[in-house]
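FIELD: query
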Amino acid sequence: MLGETLSFLLDALVQPFAAILLFRFHAVWLRAPMRNPIGEFLMALTDFAVLRLRRFVPAAWKLDTATLLLAFAVEFIYLGAYLWVQGYAFDSFPLAGLLAWTAVKLLKISIYLLIVTLLAEAILSWVNPHTPLAPMLFAVNRPFLQPLRSRIPPVGNVDLSVLVLFLICQFILIVPVGGLEQAVMRLL
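FIELD: result
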């Protein structure tokens, strides 16, 4: 009972916070406008930690390394706590395996974030194309969609590039990321 409760709290609070930090990192990297209700909400949720860490961790190569480091740390804590709740025998602390698993999980979460933003942009383009979220979603998805749009012409005014990108994301999740995850699990 206690294990299930702790597992629920970890899944409901800690890992989503890592995903929010990772989205903020990607949004800054892709120069997505955050002046919209969702962007401001995400900034307000993460400012307390990000702004403090930025004092010590400067940006590198125009990337928000403080936010990425925080996302890595939160996911690392989540995975360590997850192992503990699942009854993992910590005979020796599996630092290398946990670090590698964290990196793979962040890659996996990044792909899921792309899928979610693609889905949100597609749905909002049908129901409310002028929503304040549209510029943010466009900025996040454009670098991934633009190469496909230049190669895949619309069929009957329907843009198939989103569907193709969905399939590519699923393929990446199943084959390379799935293989990496299996390899990393052997390190634990």
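FIELD: remark
The first helix runs from residue 2 to 29.
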